[in-house]
Design brief:
Length: 99
């Protein structure tokens, strides 16, 4: 009887490639780890993540928000402030990122 290679079929059901596609960037991982400590404002994230430019932080936050991993909340203070937080989906993948 011929043996079936289950490694290939098991990989087809594995969600890891999709997760890596969403957060594979080094900045995305650092942003998620930082937001895992609690909600942060843009400037707090910028100061906490060494070496990230404002442009890269903006692009990555937009990408994470678009993929449902980060929420963006605008507070109508004077001046207005924006706060970012991770979603329950991001919370589920955060533990392996910190390992």
């Amino acid at each position: 009887m011929a043996q079936r290679n289950t490694a290939v079929t098991d990989q087809a059901d594995c969600p890891l490639p999709e997760v890596l596609r969403l957060i594979g960037d080094k900045w995305c991982i650092q942003i998620l780890v930082e937001l895992g400590e609690g909600p942060r404002r843009f400037t707090q994230l910028e100061r906490a993540i060494d070496g990230i430019s404002r442009r890269m932080l903006t692009l990555n936050l937009r990408n994470l928000e678009r993929n449902g991993l980060v929420t963006r909340t605008v507070h109508p203070d004077a001046p207005p402030s924006v706060e970012y937080a991770i979603t329950p989906l991001a919370e589920d993948i955060r533990d392996p990122l910190e390992a």
